[in-house]
Amino acid sequence: MTAVRRNTMVDYVGRIFSLAGLSFPAFYLGVLLLYFFSVKWGLFPTLGAGNFSEPLANLHHLALPAISLGLIETAYIGRMTRSVMISILGDDFVRTARAKGLSEWAVLWRHALRAGLIPIVALVGIFAISLIGSSVLTEIVFSRPGLGRLMVGAIRQRDYTTVQSIMVVYAFIIVVINLITDLVYGLVDPRVRYA
User: Fold this and answer.
1) Which class is domain 9-188?
2) Residue ranges of the chain with pLDDT lower than 50?
3) Burial of residue 62 (number of CB atoms within 10 Å: 0-12, 13-18, 19+)
4) Could you state, in order of their start, the residue ranges of all structural domains in the chain?
5) Which of the chain's termini has less CB crowding within 10 Å, N or C?
6) Which of 76, 94, 77 shows the shortest CA–CA distance to 4?
7) Residue 191 carries which DSSP code?
8) Please, which residues have CB within 8 angstroms of residue 111's CB and are 6 or more apart in sequence?
């Protein structure tokens, strides 16, 4: 939306929010979210993971850590999408689509965004992998059980077998994310073919 309404109030507000999202480290944003939404307003639980037998309570405990990680990644992806769309909206095929009388929605979604999805999909794949590193600090801030906390505890105790096992799991997750990203390339761009 900010690329379509370039240099308007919508664009300025979107750029300010994305810049603010880029400026906060995940653990600091987590502390701020804990302070406001848990301590001050009491909307979410402060620490822990909740009871795993109750899915809704578990999601309630998961909301703030997910927001903490997701807002920062969304800011990066939003800025990249804006840059890609600005460069694509000036291309010849977009002008041709408008000249054919297509609606603005069809021009933006079917033509412009689809042409710009390759770098965006690549960035989403990279940031999905970087979430693994950010999740370690987020698990510590929100006192959630997870592989990150387990790895930090294993490093402190010099339990190298556990550290190696966690690294194998992380490597498997990274390979799966890269595979999914490559498969999505084929869905986004029909020119990409796999032999």
Assistant:
1) mainly alpha
2) none
3) middle
4) 9-188
5) C
6) 94
7) T
8) 93, 94, 97, 102
The whole-number pLDDT of residue 110 equals: 84
First to last CA, the chain: 37
What letter represents residue 90's amino acid?
G
Amino acid present at 79: R
pLDDT tens figures, 93-117: 888 988 888 888 888 888 888 888 8
Tens digits of residue pLDDT in 56-87: 888 888 889 888 888 888 888 888 888 888 88
Q: What is the pTM of this model?
A: 0.78
Phi-psi region of 50 (alpha: psi -120 to 50; beta: other; left: phi over 0): left
